[in-house]
Design goal:
Length: 246
């Protein structure tokens, strides 16, 4: 048995016990972590699996970056909560530091603008649930949207981030398609075509270009099918450098 799975199983068992025991509503409240200024549920704070030890919460590195962890809510394409206890967005420390560098660069060219993170490290068990939820979509289309959990997503290594930008008023920049929008209009590779059709405006494309510009400046790599997704390393290198989070 993989030793790295044991602590996470312990966490899951603890979560199940906590829920079954009906220990009140405190689990959704947690405590405010002074360092990151975010709410950390008790069980997440006290039971950190061994394989997570190289991860840091983004908020502990840079409080300018806004966290809107969609899979910790039902405001996502599945309409259900996929992160039962995880409320912070975690990344490998080196990746979180690079994201902080992106924020600094963004602030320097667009004062008041902030990155907003929708997803970061995603355990492979959650990847599997997403994959299963999309089983009505043909395999060839599905892999464009959710990486096959068998081979693992770069998210599963804590080396990918889903991100957008808020303006100085705290409004999300209009990208012409929402986060997790599976339609082709969300594909960077089709932007020119959608502009020709009048379905994407110049401003929407410029907003996406700004996001790509700041992320690429610090070495993040965008993909052709999701405007919001960026890898800190190519998948093969992420696999070599980091443990997968189960
Ligand atoms: Zn992603």
């Amino acid at each position: 048995m993989d030793r790295r799975k044991l602590p996470f199983r312990g966490l899951l068992f603890g979560m199940c016990f906590f829920l079954l025991a009906g220990c009140g509503s405190d689990d959704t409240k947690g405590k405010v972590d002074q360092e990151s200024n975010t709410v950390v549920p008790e069980q997440e704070k006290h039971v950190i699996p061994e394989s997570w030890k190289s991860l840091v919460s983004i908020s502990s590195i840079d409080t300018n970056i806004v966290i809107d962890l969609r899979y910790a809510t039902d405001n996502n394409f599945t309409k259900s909560v996929l992160y039962d206890t995880m409320r912070n967005a975690y990344l490998q420390e080196v990746v979180a530091q690079r994201l902080s560098d992106v924020q600094s660069f963004l602030s320097s060219i667009k004062p008041g603008y902030r990155l907003v993170v929708y997803d970061a490290m995603r355990p492979r068990s959650v990847q599997q649930r997403m994959w299963d939820l999309l089983d009505s979509i043909p395999f060839g289309e599905r892999v464009k949207f959710v990486s096959n959990p068998k081979s693992g997503s770069v998210h599963n290594y804590g080396a990918a981030v889903d991100v957008s930008i808020l303006n100085e008023k705290g409004e999300t920049l209009d990208m012409g398609a929402g986060y997790d929008d599976m339609r082709h209009i969300a594909y960077p590779m089709y932007e020119d075509s959608f502009k020709l059709l009048g379905l994407l405006t110049q401003q929407q494309i410029e907003n996406r270009v700004l996001l790509r510009k700041v992320m690429r400046r610090k070495g993040f790599i965008n993909i052709p099918t999701e405007w919001w997704h960026f890898n800190a390393f190519p998948r093969a290198i992420a696999k070599r450098k980091f443990d997968i989070i189960e």
